[in-house]
Amino acid sequence: VIKWAIGGTSIEPSNASDKSIHWSANPEWLANNTATSEKGRSLLLSFINDIDGCIDNTLSKLKNGYQIDAFLWHQGESDSHSGKYKDYYHKLNVMVNSFRKELGVLEVPFIVGGLGDYLGKSAFGRSCVEYELVNQELLRFTGYISFNCVSVLI
User: Fold this and answer.
1) What CA–CA distance (Å, rounded) separates 133 from 16?
2) 29-50 as b/e, with b when 16 or more CB fall inside 10 Å?
3) For residues 121 and 81, is the Cβ–Cβ distance under 8 A?
4) Could you read off the pLDDT of 16-45 as tens digits, one per residue?
């Protein structure tokens, strides 16, 4: 198991801040940004670099080899307001296809965790009023993408 997570991040690049970080796989945006591990804004580039490093430095040296069995995706709170859900399906699809291609695991299962119904009510989640719409997009993603996707909605 390789854990890689940063809370409070969005799949959608924000125009509001030059310093915010995102999961975007938009080729134009990626071309103008660098990995967060290099003090840039791209979580996707950092994820791919870190997994590549883990493979090169550790996994490839294991006596019995290794395999990537699945990816678990649990994100969306920061995309559950201001109508961001409208493009969530497309952006998630582009991102998943991008890192599957980069890591050479085109058919590895992609497990999606849904957003909890505590959102939209209080504390951190108060602004996440569109969480149900993000969950619908997550379900649509796992229902229409042909490459091994599973939804786990709470």
Assistant:
1) 23
2) ebeebebbeeeebbbbbbbbbe
3) no
4) 556 788 888 888 888 999 999 898 889 889
Nearest in space to 68 (alpha carbons), one of 91, 52, 46: 52
Using a cut of 0.90, tell me whether the model's pTM lies above it.
Answer: no
Cα gap 83→35, rounded to integer Å: 26
Residue carrying the six token digits 């009023």: 129
- Strand ranges, E, within 7-131: 71-73, 110-113
pLDDT in tens, 54-107: 989 999 999 999 888 888 888 888 899 999 999 999 999 888 888 888 888 888
The Cα 102–Cα 44 span in angstroms is: 11
Q: Which two tokens stand for residue 33?
A: 């940004």
Q: Which two tokens stand for residue 48?
A: 């791919």
Q: What is the number of residues in the chain?
A: 154
Locate the DSSP E strands across 24-109.
71-73
d(CA 79, CA 42): 16
Q: How far is residue 86 CA from its own chain's centroid?
A: 16
